[in-house]
Amino acid sequence: MAFKPNATLKNVLITGYPGVGKTTCVRKVVQALNDKQNNYSSIIALNGFYSLERRQKSQSAGAYRIGFDVISVVDETSGILARTEQELPSAVYNKYTMGQSTFHHVGKYIVDLEGFERFVLPLLQSKHNNGGSNKQAIFVIDEIGKMELFSRPFQNYTQRLLDDPSVIVIATVPNKHNIAFVDRVKQRPDAKLFTLTQNNRDLTTKYITHCVFEIIDTKMSQIKSGAPHDQGQRNRNEYDDDSKSAVKSTNYYNAAQSKTYRKKGGNK
What is the 3-state secondary structure (H, E, C) of the chain? Predict the structure, then answer.
């Protein structure tokens, strides 16, 4: 059973409980797209960001989480999304204590909205797709979550990319957060939603990679006036056998959920 995207499918969404490996999945997909052993790296223009926990070592308590960073998929530079109060950089802390409205609380974490927007918004602008008009633009958004959605400009930029038929979006979304914007994104007819569990995440990551390859081929064939574009076929073959095994798990995600990852307040 092969994945065959329709002409409108262009948004790939990844969900799952906190800690299940959504960001790891996204990074592996990006790594496959950038792999110079296949031909996709030469026909795409990647931009966007992924999120990482920021941890600090402690002799008494081991490594503990102090917040979240956002990382550019282009050059691995980073910016701050959120920190605990005691770990805010001094310049940010001074603004926070002055009561500026650009800060929001999620559990024990303080979201630095101004810093987040300054770093992320340029990564989500289509003008950054300057690799050539013949390249397929792909934007990574990890994640479309509660912290990020405090920013109205981020919502607008994300909506614009999701609506743009010329670009492909690979995004992570919370599994359960009751956020209206996220609910609407999940219900889009031009999106495919994948749910990661502890049991299926390895095979499903390969299947997602295969799906992205197929969507690129479909988009590029449209650009080339209907001529099938299959430059990536050789490399994609290595994903096909594994992805066939993973197809079955896409049919019973809801019945095969692994144990819920429960963490203390403030999880993204």
Answer: CCCCCCCCCCEEEEECCCCCCHHHHHHHHHHHHHCCCCCHHHCEEEEEEEEEEEEECCCCCCCEEEEEEEEECCCCCEEEEEEEHHHCCHHHHHHHHCCCCCEEEECCEEEEHHHHHHHHHHHHCHHHCCCCCCCEEEEEECCCCCCHHHCHHHHHHHHHHHHCCCEEEEEECCCCCCCHHHHHHHCCCCEEEEECCCCCHHHHHHHHHHHHHHHHHHHHHHHCCCCCCCCCHHHHHHHHHHHHHHHHHHCCCCCCCCCCCCCCCCCC
Question: What's the pLDDT score for residue 259?
Answer: 40
**Any residues with CB less than 8 A from the CB of 19 and at least 6 apart, and which?**
261, 263
Would you say 230 and 217 are in contact if contact means Cβ atoms under 8 Å apart?
Answer: yes
Which amino acid belongs to residue 1? M
Is the four-CA dihedral 99, 100, 101, 105 of positive or negative sign?
Answer: negative
Ramachandran region of residue 99, left (φ > 0), alpha (ψ -120 to 50) or beta? left
User: Per-residue b/e over 39-60, b at no fewer than 16 CB within 10 Å?
Assistant: bbeebbbbbbbbbbebeeeeee
Instruction: Count Cα neighbours of 100 within 13 Å in the Cβ-side half-sphere.
Output: 15
Residue 173 has a pLDDT of 97
Question: pLDDT-derived band of residue 99, with 50, 70 and 90 as boundaries?
Answer: confident
User: Which pair of structure tokens corresponds to residue 228?
Assistant: 């099938």
Token pair for 141: 């958004």
Structure tokens at 32: 């496959």
Q: What does pTM read for this prediction?
A: 0.81
